[in-house]
Amino acid sequence: MAALLSVSDLHVSFQTYAGKVYAVNGMTFDIQPGEIFGLVGESGCGKSVTSLAILRILPGHGRITRGEIAFDGRDLTQLSEREMQPIRGRQIAMIFQDPSTSLNPVFSVGNQITRIIRHHMGYSSQAANQRALELFSKVALPDPKRIFTTYPHELSGGMQQRVMIALALASGARLLIADEPTTALDVTIQDQILELLVELRQREGLSILLITHNLGVVAETCDKVGVAYAGKIVEIGPTSWVLHQRQHPYTEGLLAALPSPRQKGQDLLSIPGSVPDGLSVIPGCPFHLRCPHVMEVCRHSEPGMAAAAGSVDDQHRVSCYLYSSEVVR
Ligand code: SF4
Of ligand 1's atoms, which has the minimum distance to the CA of residue 250? Predict the structure, then answer.
């Protein structure tokens, strides 16, 4: 099946007062129609910048310097701003961590969603109202007629996020980018929103790029996962393979850092050191300064992506010399 979104060797940098920041350095992944793909990693690994690059809404002095973003067969990096407009919002929608900052506080949520429906779908006022109520039901908002007349500040964070998802569906988007959509919500509400995303994938055939720092969220939700470090994927594959047969030391570190009831009374584990600031390109493997298994070769030569041991059809891939037959340890 042809991928709906195919990001290939994407590079993004920012010109800052401190110098050029290399935020994304060869990001590569595909999302199939109806698939939920998790992009996971610590803050500063290039996840959110990748999503902004896909929509071509990079802030300030951000530039795509290399690579391709093919959406439905068209390379978005080559489109003019005018050509991007019908894709942004209409075909690719985005929801953020804090829905209250995305909703307009001075209009009722009904007003906001019907404007989108009328703008993108050309519906009459009455048909747009009807469609808005259907969408509020679809995202399991209780009493859609009452919700229609409320203002964002009258809704809880979980309800605001459901409204945001309804807004994304209102435009008929085929790809939803969800950037840390549950991080600002209570744990019980987080589960409900994740369940809703999985349901929408099944019911509506929506493809979802789920950006998160939380591997627990990935385990519950995603079909495939890419683990990003220093602006590129270091391990990728079907979620259960990456989580249960992880090979990259960074994936191992992220999983070890997940809180567990078995660690009661003990300090939480963390990966030593910090994510590179991107102001310079690290020679060799970008993880070598933090890796417990670092070898001499890792310091000066970057490993390529290769099929992980035991991978079926090369679907599980990893970038690490520990799994390269070319390296004599
Ligand atoms: Fe660690 Fe070397 Fe593998 Fe990088 S290539 S993750 S430094 S063992």
Answer: 6
Give 126-137 pLDDT, tens digit per residue.
999 999 999 999
Q: What string of DSSP letters covers 184-241?
A: TS-HHHHHHHHHHHHHHHHHH--EEEEEES-HHHHHHH-SEEEEEETTEEEEEEEHHH
* pLDDT tier for residue 314 given thresholds of 50, 70 and 90: confident
For the segment(s) 5-91+172-261+268-323, the CATH number from 3.40.50.300, 3.40.980.10, 2.130.10.10, 3.40.640.10 is 3.40.50.300
* Cβ–ligand 1 contact at 249 (below 6 Å): yes
Residues 194-239 pLDDT 10s: 999 999 999 889 999 999 998 989 999 999 999 999 999 999 999 9
Ligand 1 atom closest to Cα of 298? Answer: 2
Whether the CB-CB separation of 248 and 320 falls below 8 Å is answered with: yes
Token pair recorded at residue 206: 């929506």
CB 64 within 8 A of CB 11: yes
Site to substitute for ligand 1 among 287, 296, 329, most atoms within 8 A of C-beta: 287
Assessment of whether the complete model's pTM goes beyond 0.85? yes
Q: What residues does each domain of the chain span? A: 5-91+172-261+268-323
39-81, pLDDT tens digit by residue? 999 999 999 999 999 999 999 889 999 999 999 999 999 999 9
CA 168 – CA 276 distance, rounded (Å): 34
For residue 294, the CA-to-ligand 1 centroid distance in Å is: 5
- Collect all residues with Cβ–Cβ distance below 8 Å to 1 and sequence separation of at least 6: 32, 33
* Angle, CA of 84, 68 and 232, to the nearest 5°: 120
In this structure, the residue with its CA closest to atom 3 of ligand 1 is 320
